[in-house]
Specification:
With 169 residues, this protein is an alpha+beta fold. It is 30% helix and 31% strand. It contains five helices and seven strands; from the N terminus they run E-H-H-E-E-E-H-E-H-E-E-H. The structure holds coenzyme A.
């Protein structure tokens, strides 16, 4: 498994992840296809400028165009200052192989090694057993249940937090 920056050519993978009702069931439902090419271009620019870590999960390094999913670490404004957040998705044909967990751990190892991002937060939907399992087994601590707004929709989530320097398992 390898991680590489998202590029403007990853539109198909974005559409298969973000515009699919099953993939988006715990994320408020599918997003419209119309905005996806622009979204990928914006994300590719952000990744190239190292403003956020927007990574594609590549199961076989010899086939860099074959994408299994994404893992993303970025900063946004919270109520009391900037918040670092990580999120992830793995396409159905690649699920259940431990890829999401390895990708999340790999990105948090980079955060630890570069001493960047501080405390990292994750907000999986309360019913998303796999994602909550990833948080638990990678070393996040459970904070509380919270409602969060994602793409304009309110979701009930479990808030987890990790300090990669000390907590990563
Ligand atoms: C959630 C998702 C990322 C899991 O990806 P994955 O690569 O299949 O996950 P992994 O194989 O790394 O498994 C992670 C853990 O969850 C467990 N798990 C996997 N699928 C599960 C399921 N359906 N129910 C319960 N546990 C599950 C695994 O056993 C593993 O736990 P372990 O470490 O104790 O063995 C993937 O299903 C997905 O992208 N779903 C749609 C989008 C989404 O919900 N994204 C997350 C939003 S927070």
């Amino acid at each position: 498994m390898q991680l590489r920056n998202v590029s403007a050519d990853d539109v198909d993978a974005y559409i298969r992840m973000r515009c699919d009702p099953v993939m988006m069931a715990d994320l408020g439902g599918p997003l419209p296809r119309a905005g996806m090419a622009d979204k990928v271009r914006r994300d590719a620019r952000q990744a190239a400028a190292d403003l956020a870590w927007l990574k594609m999960i590549i199961p076989d390094p010899d086939v860099p165009d074959l994408v299994a999913g994404t893992v993303t670490l970025w900063s946004h404004d919270g109520d009391s200052g900037p918040v670092s957040e990580i999120g992830w998705m793995v396409l159905p044909e690649f699920q259940g192989q431990g890829l999401a967990k390895r990708a999340v751990r790999t990105l948090l190892e980079q955060a630890r090694d570069q001493d960047r991002w501080g405390v990292v937060h994750a907000f999986p939907a309360t019913g998303n057993a796999a994602s909550n399992g990833i948080c638990r087994s990678v070393g996040f601590r459970f904070v509380s249940e919270v409602d969060v707004t994602f793409a304009g929709r309110v979701l009930r989530t479990r808030h987890w937090a990790i300090t990669p320097r000390t907590d990563l398992r």
